[in-house]
Structure formats: structure tokens, C-alpha cells
Write a structure and sequence with these properties.
Layout (H helix, E strand, L loop, with lengths): L9 H7 L5 E4 L4 H7 L8 E4 L10 H5 L4 E2 L6 H16 L2 H9 L15 E5 L3 H10 L5 E5 L13 E3 L4 H7 L2 E4 L13 H6 L5 E4 L8 H10 L4 E4 L12 H4 L3 E3 L10 H18 L14
Parallel strand pairs: 1-2, 2-3, 4-5, 4-7, 5-6, 7-8, 8-9, 9-10
Length: 296
């Protein structure tokens, strides 16, 4: 018989924790997991619904031999599509079209296309590869930064770069998709130096973790015209505070961290957990085991 306790009450969870064999953590309740974990003395597996685990990697969880799994790949499809939609938004100047429509103004203009342009991907995991899969049919050139480029040939990629070559990749990219997890190495990875390396016509798209991009540097790059624009689904602080420059900048496409909220998105996340739970019960290897020291 399986006993299930569902709660967001810290006291109730602390009371139930000593009897728990499995902990399922919702991404909105990351602090609950870190608070309750020390009381879970018999726990044998922890699963995080979200792909990003930076908020749940407390020192106790990192040191523990208990495996941590995550939702890596569950949301890859809609996030890959959102990268495409963001590129189309800027290439075909959708904001200008809507502005002219609202003003009842008929004014034709020349615009860009995706074909022949370069998409650079920072963080070539499940989401990055989903973006590459969807960009390929548009005739785009696709390049990516990978930790071990020499050992990771991928037919979708025209070129790979090491992390030390990040600026070199950025310099040739018309669109940059940031899809990296948040780790010590990626925190603030894209800042003043990186925006200086980018084309003035470039657009950056963040569907990974907000703090991978230094927001102050991005705001300056957008306000000064150093780059063309940004499409953002994640931010350093969420919800984005009132009065933040991103709200007023016309060269920003802003999504309140819901780019993957397509019909059934939460059900898909729980279905993955249920599949993994079946593996746990049978003693089979779990899917998506996190390297807690690497942070993903």
C-alpha cells in the first residue's frame, strides 16, 4: 500500500518526512524541499518536476547519496517552438505590423527572413537541440557551444565551439538562444563582453535560466542599440518587478515564464514522474538522474 502526502505546509511536511521513501517537488515549492529534506531520514529518491534544479540543490541534498532526478526534456518541444516564434517575431517585425494595424496605417516595408541566417545556441541540451531541430527546416545555419565539442558530433550542427570560444560563436550569430542550466559556470555567463562581441543586428533569446544573462548589461545593450533585441521567458527576479526596463523597451519580447505552458504541460511533467516511479518500484535505473555537483 502506497501512502501519499500532498501539502505545501512546512509543518505537515516535516511531520511526514521521516516516513517518506520518495519526495516529489513542484518547482514552485523549491524552498519546501530544502527545508524538509533533512527530516527525510529514510528517503531513497527525490524528483523535481522542473528541469532546472539550481534552487533545490542545498548542501544537504548535494552531499546526500539519495538520487535526484528532474524533468529534463519534458518541456523541450514548446520551448524549441518558442525560440522559432521569437526569431520570426523579429525577422518579420510583428510589433511593427501590430502597431500599424492598430493605427489603421497601410505602409509596406522590406523585412528579414530566417533562411541563411545563423542560430547560435548556448547550452546544447534538450531545449537547445529542440530549437536546432526546428530551425533546420527554415534553412538556418546552426552552431552551438558545447562542453566537449570534439567528442560531440551532431548532424544538426554546422559547427561547435568550446566554452572558451563563446564570444567567437556569438560574433557570427544572428540569433542567440540561451538554454543553459544555472550553475557556477553559467551564472552571469553572458555579460558586457559577450554583448560587445555580438552583431548589432543580433537578437538574444533566453529560455533557460534568467541569471545566465547579466540583466543590467542586457538592458544597456538594448537601450544603446548594441544589439537588435531580446526575447525573454526567464529573468533574474521573478515575477519581473514593476517599472523594470524590459516592460517599456519595444525591442523586447517578454513572456512571464510560461513559454512551455501549452495544453497538458503539467500532466506531461507528472506522467514522466509516474513512469520513473514505476522504474523505482521495480528497481530499474531511474531516468534523468542529476549530476548534483555539476548542477544539471
Amino acid at each position: 500500500e502506497t501512502r501519499i502526502v500532498v501539502s505545501n505546509n512546512p509543518a505537515r511536511l516535516r511531520e511526514a518526512a521521516p516516513e517518506a521513501d520518495v519526495i516529489l517537488a513542484h518547482f514552485k515549492d523549491a524552498k519546501l524541499l530544502t527545508d524538509v529534506f533533512p527530516y527525510a531520514t529514510r528517503v531513497r529518491w527525490v524528483h523535481s518536476i522542473s528541469a532546472g534544479v539550481d534552487r533545490v540543490l542545498s548542501p544537504e541534498i548535494v552531499k546526500s547519496p539519495v538520487p535526484l532526478t528532474n524533468g529534463r526534456g519534458v518541456f523541450r518541444r514548446p520551448l524549441g517552438e518558442w525560440v522559432i516564434s521569437a526569431m520570426l517575431h523579429f525577422a518579420y517585425e510583428h510589433r511593427r505590423l501590430l502597431r500599424d494595424q492598430q493605427a489603421q496605417r497601410w505602409e509596406s516595408f522590406d523585412h528579414d527572413e530566417l533562411h541563411g541566417h545563423t542560430l547560435g545556441i548556448v547550452g546544447y541540451g534538450e531545449i537547445g537541440r529542440a530549437a536546432a531541430e526546428r530551425a533546420r527546416p527554415f534553412g538556418m545555419r546552426i552552431v552551438a557551444v558545447r562542453r566537449k565539442p570534439a567528442l560531440s558530433a551532431d548532424p544538426l550542427l554546422d559547427a561547435t565551439y568550446s566554452p572558451a570560444q563563446l564570444n567567437e560563436m556569438l560574433a557570427e550569430s544572428d540569433y542567440v538562444a540561451a538554454a543553459a542550466p544555472l550553475t557556477r559556470e553559467t551564472h552571469g555567463l553572458i555579460g558586457v563582453s559577450q554583448f560587445s562581441a555580438m552583431k548589432s543586428s543580433a537578437v538574444i533569446i533566453n529560455v533557460g535560466r534568467g541569471p545566465v544573462i547579466q540583466e543590467a548589461a542586457l538592458v544597456h545593450a538594448l537601450e544603446s542599440g548594441r544589439i537588435r533585441g531580446a526575447a525573454l521567458d526567464v529573468f533574474e527576479t521573478e515575477p519581473l518587478p514593476p517599472g523594470h526596463p524590459f516592460y517599456r523597451l519595444e525591442n523586447v519580447l517578454l513572456s512571464p515564464h510560461c513559454a512551455d505552458h501549452t495544453p497538458g504541460w503539467l500532466e506531461r511533467a507528472f506522467e514522466f514522474f509516474i513512469d520513473n516511479f514505476g522504474r523505482f518500484i521495480k528497481g530499474e535505473p531511474l531516468r534523468n538522474v542529476v549530476d548534483k555537483h555539476a548542477g544539471y
